[in-house]
């Protein structure tokens, strides 16, 4: 890569999160944002070369400044590009009709059992061809970018057959190639038991293990393997088998755990060495302790609880227990139809008892570690990829305080300005 070097200069607050590349931050350290006032960043070939006060960076760079493109961040906040570590980005169709049903009292599980929910999206996704899926998902990815997100994880799991799971994953791979936002793929064939297997779920589990996982791995279409461990979906025992099978093929485990009731999901995550356990609204104290000990990242999804009018996961308790916490949109067509990671940050503060500093850590470096990218993104340090956001607020607290607005002004991905608000 070549092109002009880039100077992002004079940020009122430059949030660096320095020193967090090897492991996610926990406990008190989640508030160590390592802020530089009047901070600047020097970028060459898409990589951060120098970070410091404006005076320090200018001195280091010297006469090369003359060739640089300059982004002026005076009076503004600059952070690492936001990272969303849990989305169901690739799907077709929409489910507004279920919103009314829910508001009249139907539960998410009741709607699913009546053929709605995941099943409705599965039919729409199976019917869509690759091009339609690509176009619909690309529009969502554009929206993520406009909200300051430079990397998203994306799960399959609306195909629920080899052919259609591969189709979803191929779309995610193509988006990763074409779009400025990086897309990290997770195979989630075990997202639901397809209607046709309702009476013989073990047969479907076998299909996931024997057909889907080997083929996904052979085609290098995913890095992670995720399973929805919940009563009425996959049992802890089935989940364990699916996650262990993935590990044999090099797919690192993730798990949708303890969303609706305590079901041993957090404990299982610790036992199989999952990279993350996600949701955790009902995780047991035992499970939380086990996750802290094993270093499993808790990916919390307050937008889902908000939209389903459910009680939130206890983010405060998990941070205090020493679990590394990340936050995510859970962007999906049913339980969290949003792309706004800034709104999620706000919910993290108001509904989960986390501080503005903790939620910023949870959507940058800890989110990067939740998808094994902590070594290359999530903080602003020499040697890392130059993914940054300039926000139109003077300090990091303003991001959460002025809620419901999009404060994103400029997004820089791999050292290039890829979005600028008019
Ligand atoms: Zn999910």
UniProtKB/TrEMBL annotation:
Zn(2+) binds at residues 86, 88, 256, 330. GO terms for molecular function: imidazolonepropionase activity; iron ion binding; zinc ion binding. The keyword Iron applies. InterPro entries: Amidohydro-rel, HutI, Metal-dep_hydrolase_composite, Metal_Hydrolase. Pathway: Amino-acid degradation; L-histidine degradation into L-glutamate; N-formimidoyl-L-glutamate from L-histidine: step 3/3. It comes from the Bacteria. GO terms for biological process: L-histidine catabolic process to glutamate and formamide; L-histidine catabolic process to glutamate and formate. Its EC number is 3.5.2.7. Its main location: cytoplasm. Binds 1 zinc or iron ion per subunit. Its cofactor is Zn(2+); Fe(3+). Belongs to the metallo-dependent hydrolases superfamily. HutI family. Catalyzes the hydrolytic cleavage of the carbon-nitrogen bond in imidazolone-5-propanoate to yield N-formimidoyl-L-glutamate. It is the third step in the universal histidine degradation pathway. This is Imidazolonepropionase. The gene is hutI.
